[in-house]
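Collaborator request, handled under Task 6.
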Amino acid sequence: ASNKRQPGNLLLPTVVLSRAAALRFSPANSMGLSKELVLAALQQQGIKYEEYDHEPVMTCDAQATALQGTSGNVTKNLFLRDKKRRQYLITALPDTKVDLKVLSARLGCGKSGLSWSSEELLAESLQVEPGCVTPLALANQSSSKHVLLLIDQKLKNTKFFVHPIVNSASVLLDSAGLDTFVRSVGREPIYVDLEADPKIDRDNPPDLKQYADNIGAPTKENEEGTSNNSSSGAASSQANIAAAPAAKTASQASTATAASKGKKTTSSKTANAVQQSSAEQHIQLSDVVKRTEDLINMVSQALLSNPAAEAAASNDYVLKRLKADVQMQLTAFKNAAYSAGYTAGKEEIVAFATRRYA
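Structure tokens returned to the collaborator:
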């Protein structure tokens, strides 16, 4: 059974966090905006809605059962990705048939370009847990900027339910309210006939490709770092070139050749340094004793606001016993990880050989 709650004025408490607590609850370490903040955003935009609390639900059928006796359609929300790591959030009626091959072609991704997103990508982009996918997650604007929302045209001018970030509640709003929310996060609502199968050829380009192209593809952090470094290097090189005379003498050409060799040597040294730093980082991360010290200090700092050594000064035995227990657990975890990696690699080799020589 559901419990209806009318929207009211939310008073958001001011919480003073310690440095350690602030780190734990920073955007990089959390699941994004809370239900209360998302509902506050709806109220701020003057969007009318009704909130219903119920047991956590993972399917449309379970949501419909939890909302029996209410007026409004439940929705299914599909979270997909293409090969460029662009993501697509599809909000539709449960009985709307969504052919992924057809939709992929309409988006200009080819007939096999779409697939289901992983839980990791779901947490990274929408910052919600499985079973909680909702268009309201676009309130996490920074992380969801590469997500394209497509809305079933059957939802136009109707009332329907979506989750407010968590699947233990549902909010009933109309399409106009959803449109207002979508515009409030800097987007335009896109209603699509998800069951259409238009002809696509040279004379009939993919009808949804323009929307996919507009969101762009995300770049991984390490690629961004490389790109930034390359850009800085390129800008510096261009500045040097602009400052140099147009004509080169033989001696200048010789100097340039020597400089080129020097650059290659420097690049080689840099690559070796990167490899060494990666190896050192791996050793540090797998150092059980060091990880134990870090964990105990973090927990002690968060709970007692003191380093572990100071907090346990009165009872050194307790600290030693705790470190031993944590080291044992971490060692067991590391050994299990190594074993699992070895087993997975062995199975992959066997599977490859079986496919190749079958």
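The cover message to the collaborator said: "The longest helix spans residues 316-357. The radius of gyration is 28 Å. Please let us know whether this matches your experimental observations."
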